[in-house]
Amino acid sequence: MSLKKSVKERFFHALGFEVLAIAICAPLGAWLLDYSLAHMGLLTLMISLVAMSWNMVFNALFDRAQRSMGFRRTLVARVVHSVLFEIGLILAVVPLAAWWLGIGLWQAFVLDIGIVLFFLPYTFAFNWTYDHVRATVIARRSRLSAA
Predict the structure, then answer these.
(1) Domain residue limits at 110
(2) Contact indicator for 43, 101 with CB cutoff of 8 Å
């Protein structure tokens, strides 16, 4: 499988990830935390913009690490990928959530732990599915161009 991805493809990958996440998290957050859908929707949008930027940078770094170290995208590699991604995101999101919701950093951190418990399997499943769909599309294009 080709590890070289264009900026356009990285943007498409990150956008798909974030749109689906917002569609799930904004209504769920509004319901669980008793905020308006608009208030939670704006927070999830802000978090999404941070996460999308981080997603593009992190995945480019992950691909570069894979090329230089030569590891395969095994289950263990995907777990490490998901955990490292979420740690970086926590460092950016906790202060944003604390400010937007008017809560302390500790409360925002505890809230973010709940979010991470959702996003760890979501990130794993989304990226695993994306990689498999991408490999299928590349293989199909390769067969069509060879014919």
Answers:
(1) 7-146
(2) yes
